[in-house]
Amino acid sequence: MKSLRRIRSKLWLLLILSAIPLKILGMSGMGMQPKEGLPLFFWKEGPFINFGDHLSLKLVERIVGTDLDYYCKRLKRPVKKLLAIGSVFYFATNDDVIWGSGINGKTLEKKHYEFTRLDVRAVRGPLTRQFLKEHFQIDCPEIYGDPALLFPYLFPEFKRKIFPTYSYIIIPHFLELHLFPKSKYPNVVYPTDPWNEVIEKILDSAFVISSSLHGIVIAESYGIPARLLRVTENQNLFKYQDYYLGTNRPNFQYAQSIEEALEMGGEPPFECDLQKLYEAFPFEFWPNARICVPNIPTNGRL
Fold first, then answer.
1. Domain ranges, residue 97
2. How far apart are the first and last CA of the chain?
């Protein structure tokens, strides 16, 4: 009788789990390919969501016009997947499709990576391309740019404010939140706040000072001046250099304090062929999706 009860309990558990969307479990995909498209990998660790990484999910879903299977942890059995926004090459495995990701810079030795071949459509910048070609002899097209630069064209519901509330905001990296308590900095925005609220605050600002890469990327995508802030060495400069080189600004400079950032102002506007970046998206994996085709200028300027 006990063994029969155990079997019944397991069957009920399986039935319950089968009714729960895999996304809710945080591990959508679970080794299975979706009926259409590829599962998306984006970085998430701990109880919070980092808005820059979460943009990968929001942007790709908007492009293909449908929900995605996704997961945020490395699976024991490799699954062919899409890697888009974020420094997520560390999680790539053979035959993954890359669209706009970049190397972080913390791990620049071949032994730290689990792939030998990739399907690369675009990368964040030339430093990532050079790394892939030199260490893995992976063919990598010269198509650069962080896909978050496409945000204004794919999310027309977000509008830059004509008369912004904030003369400037500060967006620290999530490892530096303790340095910018909201009680002391009323114009600080945490990248762990809800992603849409972070974007709304950026669009309600005249200037963005950020050690979060995507605080800079989203601001610049809307033509809002931004300056990289570097108050710790928590983050390797590699990914920032990669982004700025990929947007034709080899002489970028960072500020070491809020005061210095205010004095320096924003970097020159980015230059990037966003139409080419958009067209590099692997649309063929979503043949039945409602593909939207925004009017994106080739120079990337709004």
1. 2-149+273-285
2. 70
Structure tokens given for 30: 């679970």
* 265/255 Cα distance (integer angstroms): 10
Strands in 208-210's sheet, in edge-to-edge order, are 169-171, 208-210, 226-228
Q: In this predicted structure, what is the pLDDT of residue 4? A: 42
Q: Residue 11 — pLDDT band, cuts 50, 70, 90?
A: very low
Same domain, 104 and 16: yes
In angstroms, rounded to a whole number, what is the distance separating the alpha carbons of residues 196 and 19?
29
Query: In this structure, which amino acid lies at residue 107?
Result: T
Per-residue burial over 37-61, b if 16 or more Cβ lie within 10 Å, else e, is bbbbbbbbeeeebbbbbbbbbbbbb
Same domain, residue pair 155 and 231:
yes
| Residue 226 predicted with pLDDT over 50 | yes
